[in-house]
Amino acid sequence: MSIRPHRIAVIPGDGIGKEVVPAGLQVLDAAAARFDVPLEYEHFDFASADYWLAHGTMLPDDWFETLRGFDAIYFGAVGWPDVVPDHVSLWGSLIQFRRRFDQYISLRPCRLLPGIPSPLVGRAPGDIDFVVVRENTEGEYSSIGGKIFHDTDREVVVQQTVMTRTGVDRVLRYAFELASRRERRKITSATKSNGITISMPYWDERFAAMGEQFPEVERDQFHIDILAANFVLHPDWFDVVVASNLFGDILSDLGPACTGTIAVAPSANINPDGLFPSLFEPVHGSAPDIAGKGIANPIGQIWCGAMMLDHLGHPDASSAILAAIDTVLERAEPGILTPDVGGGGTTSSLTRAIADAVADAS
Ligand code: NAI
Ligand code: MG
C-alpha cells in the first residue's frame, strides 16, 4: 500500500531556530523510519532577518498560496532585534500565519520532565501533566473600539471583547475531544463570570452545553485569579484547561513556567478543520545570546515534532519521541545534556541520544 507522504513546510527562522530545527528533523526522521511514517520536507528561508535584509519584507507576496497546501508547518523561531524590530518580524510572519490559516487553537502541553527542576518545591515528574487550550482568534483580543476626546479630561477609551458562538464552541469542542482521548478525562474552564458579567457567563453557558455532549469528561471551572494560583499550588489537579484568548495567553506562559525551563516547552497553533496547515513551534525564541554556539537545547523543538506527528495521525510515533526524551533525561549523562539543564554537551549530542532512543523504541 502506498501512502501519500505528509508534506511539511520547514521554516527555521532566526538564531537558534536554525540549530534546533535540523535537530528536530533528525528525530522526526528517526521516528518516521521506525514507524513507517512518510514525511516529505520543503525548506523555506523566509520569516527571518536574512530574508528581511535581502528583500525588505519578512515574507514573499505569495506566501499564502505557497504554504496553504502543506499538511503542517514546522517552525523554529523568528526575531533578530539587531536587524529587524521585534514587532515587525513577529507581525510580519508568525502572526500572519496564525491569522490567515485560522489557527484558532493554541496548544501548550505542560509536563514536568525528569531531571528538569520545577520552580515548585517538591514536585516530581508525573505530578504535572496538563495541556492548556487557548482560543486564538477572538475574545478579548479584538480591534473593535476607539478613543475619543483625545488629551482632554473627557478622554474615553473602549475596547470590545468579542465572543461568537462559532468561535467559543469550536475551541470548547476541541478541548472536550482532547480531554476525552486522555487518560484522566478531565477538563477545567477558566472563567471570570463574577467580574465580567456578560461575556464570561456566556462562555460558562457554552461550556456547560458542550459538556453535555461529553458525559465521560469530568468538568470543573475556576475564576481566572484562583485558577492561576492553583496552577502553582495544585498543578496536579489539571488535565485539560480551556480558556479564552486573554486568560489562555496568561495560563499558557504560567503552565510551562511551572515545569521549569522554556527551552523544553513546545506549542502548536492548530486549524483542527484541516482547511489550512497547523504550525508547530517551540515556546522559546531565537536566543541571540547563545545562537551559533551549538549549545541550544533542542527538546522544545523535538517535542513539537511529536505534537506534529500526533496531529498527522501517528500517535505511536509521537509517544515514542516523548518516551525517548524522558529516557535520555532520566539517564542524565552530563556529556549529553546541554548546559541549560546542567550538562556539558551540545545540541547535537542531545539530539543524537534522543534520535537513537527513538530508533530503539519497541
Ligand atoms: P528567548 O526565548 O529567545 O531567550 C530567552 C532566554 O532563554 C535566553 O537567555 C536564551 O538563551 C534562553 N533560551 C531560549 N531557548 C533556549 C534553548 N532552546 N536552549 C537553551 N537556552 C534557551 O527570548 P528573548 O531573548 O526574549 O527573544 C529573542 C528573540 O526571539 C526576539 O527577537 C524575540 O522577539 C524572539 N521570540 C520569538 C518567538 C517566536 O518565534 N515564537 C517567541 C519568543 C521570542
Ligand atoms: Mg504570551
What keywords describe this structure?
binds magnesium ion, ten-stranded mixed β-sheet, 12 helices, 40% helix, two-stranded antiparallel ribbon, 2 domains, Isopropylmalate Dehydrogenase, 362 residues, alpha/beta, binds 1,4-dihydronicotinamide adenine dinucleotide, globular
What does this structure look like?
- It is a single chain.
- This protein has 362 residues and is an alpha/beta fold.
- It folds into two domains: 1-109 and 261-362, Isopropylmalate Dehydrogenase; 129-258, Isopropylmalate Dehydrogenase (3-Layer(aba) Sandwich), CATH 3.40.718.10.
- Helix content is 40%, strand content 19%.
- It has helices at residues 17-35, 49-55, 63-68, 86-91, 94-100, 165-181, 199-212, 224-233, 245-258, 299-311, 315-331, 347-359, and strands at residues 6-13, 39-43, 72-77, 105-111, 129-135, 145-148, 156-159, 186-191, 218-223, 240-243, 266-270, 278-282.
- It has a ten-stranded mixed sheet with strand order 2-1-3-12-11-4-5-10-8-9, sandwiched between helices. A two-stranded antiparallel ribbon has the order 6-7.
- Strand 8, helix 7 (199-212) and strand 9 (218-223) form a beta-alpha-beta unit.
- Helix 6 (165-181) packs across helix 7.
- The chain starts with 5 loop residues before the first strand and ends with a helix.
- 1,4-dihydronicotinamide adenine dinucleotide binds at residues 16, 20, 77-81, 86, 90, 94, 262-263, 281, 284-290, 296-297, 300, 340.
- 1,4-dihydronicotinamide adenine dinucleotide (NAI) binds at residues 16, 20, 77-81, 86, 90, 94, 262-263, 281, 284-290, 296-297, 300, 340.
